[in-house]
């Protein structure tokens, strides 16, 4: 049975409802390893493109979605191992450490993944962009002699980093956490004096707890009432003496 080629004019074209989301292990074992050893691929789904000959936004395919390409590594110096990753408008710069790709079955290291970021301009004064590339290579060094039938292939996964509501959400959560730990004394307290005057209450009076069985009248108010009663009794006594 003849295999269907899903790549047309360097662009991946899948039927409706189909998606290509391989794992790191599948990319290395099922595609890259077979490509290096010239074995039949599971499907003709990854195009061959020299990634460093194009800027990331000019590569074939939809820029919004992640794209996969077979590419060959170009050595920067004849006697060195550094790759030439310069493009027309900038360059790809490696960041972080390479990650090992291991199989789930026996934890065997089958490949390595390098993360790169695209910079506009020329090094070392380039400006960082949101274009990211994951470069997959085999764990065992590939022979440099092309007569052995093995080329220095890699798989490049290129996508545009999304910046959205996650940053704003984190900022809002951080503000909420910080506000919860503010001291109580720093928060101003406002009293509605107009409402208090209408009700005839005094804000300076201390409320009495309901457990004491009182009617809500303060001790200061009771002392004022006793003082008024004593003064009225004295007035009555003075009136009797005048009579």
UniProtKB/TrEMBL annotation:
PROSITE patterns linked to this entry: NAC (PS51005)
UniProt record, GO biological process: regulation of DNA-templated transcription
Keyword field: DNA-binding, Nucleus, Transcription, Transcription regulation
GO molecular function: DNA binding
Domain of life, per lineage: Eukaryota
All residue ranges annotated as the NAC domain in the record: 14-161
Pfam families documented for this protein: NAM
Protein name, entry field: NAC domain-containing protein
Organism: Mikania micrantha
């Amino acid at each position: 049975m003849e295999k269907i080629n899903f790549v047309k004019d360097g662009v991946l074209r899948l039927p409706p409802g189909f998606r290509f989301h391989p794992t790191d292990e599948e990319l290395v074992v099922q595609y890259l390893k077979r490509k290096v050893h010239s074995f039949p691929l599971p499907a003709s789904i990854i195009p061959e493109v020299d990634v460093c000959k194009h800027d990331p936004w000019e590569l074939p395919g939809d820029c919004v979605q992640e794209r996969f390409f077979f590419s060959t590594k170009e050595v920067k110096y004849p006697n060195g191992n550094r790759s030439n990753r310069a493009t027309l408008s900038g360059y790809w710069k490696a960041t972080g450490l390479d990650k090992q790709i291991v199989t789930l079955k026996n934890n065997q290291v089958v490949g390595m993944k390098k993360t790169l970021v695209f910079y506009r301009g020329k090094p070392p004064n380039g400006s960082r962009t949101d274009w990211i590339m994951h470069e997959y290579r085999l764990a065992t060094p590939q022979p440099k002699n092309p007569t052995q039938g093995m080329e220095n292939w890699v798989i490049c996964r290129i996508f545009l980093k999304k910046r959205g509501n996650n940053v704003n959400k984190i900022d809002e959560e951080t503000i909420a956490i910080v506000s919860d730990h503010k001291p109580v004394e720093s928060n101003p307290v406002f009293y509605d004096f107009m409402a208090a005057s209408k009700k005839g209450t005094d804000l300076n009076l201390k409320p009495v707890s309901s457990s004491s069985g009182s009617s809500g009248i303060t001790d200061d108010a009771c002392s004022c009432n006793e003082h008024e009663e004593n003064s009225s009794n004295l007035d009555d006594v003075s009136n009797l003496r005048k009579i």
